[in-house]
Input
Amino acid sequence: MKVLLEALLPRLYPGLSFQCVPHEGKQDLEKSIPRKLRAWTEPGVRFCIIRDNDGADCLALKRRLAALCAEAGRPETLVRIACQELEAWYFGDPKAVARAYELNEERFVQKAKRSRFRDPDAITGPAQALTELVKEFQKVSGARRIGPHLGRNNRSASYRMLLTGMDRLRDELNEEER
Output
């Protein structure tokens, strides 16, 4: 996730300062949310927590993470869930994948729009599905390769929700600066 965000956010949000704090899995993230949010004292900072869904109930997961943020005194924290895994976002923009791997764009887009992949957020095991289409795909190197090509036009609803939330955070920060 960190590798993708570091390739994506500076391009889509130039001038917006950000810091990605990686965690060692879901439990580590959830355990550290209250502690890290309470300890952060820099004024004017906004927080965004992004986590893979991994088959959980999206709404219940989002509520649980939001409750942890509220418990830490940061109820305004943006919580976003990548459904099911962040690799589903790549299926939302198959042209980005084709460009990243120098594939025939038209042919790859046709494959990625098959009924099995039509709704990127509903794909079971999107990382594995992507490996079936792009043999050399690996999670970290794939994020590094695909991230620079992802744009705003994406069929993944969870990806679009992330950008909508990030747009709001950017606008809030810009408003405070005025």
Q: What stands out?
A: The mean pLDDT is 94. The CA atoms of residues 60 and 66 lie 10 Å apart.
